[in-house]
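Translate sequence into structure tokens.
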Amino acid sequence: MMKICVIGGGAAGLACAVMLGRKGFPVTVLERGARVGRKLSATGNGQGNVTNTAMGEEHYFSDRPDRVRDALARFGADDAVAFLESMGGIFLRDARGRVYPASKQASAVTDLFRREAERLKVNVVLNAHVQELAYDGGFCVKWAEGQMRADAVVLAAGGCAAPSFGTDGGAYALAQRFAHTIVPPRPVLVQLRCDKEGVRGLKGIRVDSLVRVMRKGKEITRCRGDVLFTDHGVSGDAVFRASSYAVSGDALLLDFLPDVPRERLSGAFGAGGLLCIVNNTLARTIERRAGGDRARVLALVKEYPLTVTGSLGFDCAQVTRGGIPLAETDEHFQSVKRAGLYFAGEILNVDGECGGYNLQWAFTSAFCVSDRIARG
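Result follows.
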């Protein structure tokens, strides 16, 4: 029986280990941290947004969207929910198609994986920061306190986002030893930095808004949801989704009353100004920027402009864009440069929109890898 080494104890690594363990393979998971699933336990603001019923390759960014499409056809949202429920628990969708455990506890999803891995006798080695991966007819994996040999290796150690969870991009070097290239990583699903004038005095204000990302006068995307003003720019659900598209120099146009047409807004704007129309502090900022011009005030309520100057970086990002190109793997995410070396999860050049798509990718890629290994 083949010996399998999974490097990384996150969502993709744990899913792969469980899937292979259920097929009877001896599996060892090497996790650099003190416990597995730390990032998984924080997903969905700690509530565990594991997938989305509105699933399709159009929600992903990659160098090979056709590969993403084919993989999702093999293991989609329904498959992910069935897999999770096979370990226990109930998973329910909300009005936006996001799927959560009924308990709304992401840490409980991690506990399902831990319990199932223990039941399957998966060997989990903690504090095992892999420093060397080599091939001499078989794979040799070394870390500070030990080493092992394996017939197949699954590299599922994540990207650069949220380094506090141990995902600092160091695993890319292991792949580069086998002549793999790396699509330069950048942070996504992250707070955006904006021009200081646009956010001055607004820190802490949260507004349900329609956010349009504009580039050279052309709309790139639009997102509806919370916008939270910070001392450096904007955060919130809508901004996280917009960050998958926005780059430095783009404009954000915020509609603070997306359910109110301009005609109604104009009729309501009288002697009271913006009272009972928008937040009072926001109203004062709009009126200051408008310089007392009524038409400009109304325009700013519906199209409040901010210029993107960057993001808060990997420390605050949820996901990495970039990594191992899918073009350097086969349809099972096996390396085309070294047979027996596989990739799963965020280390691949695939990232999804906010809303459960990235965990779905972790489970989908884990399935493709484990299915290929099991078939020999």
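Note: The first helix runs from residue 11 to 22.
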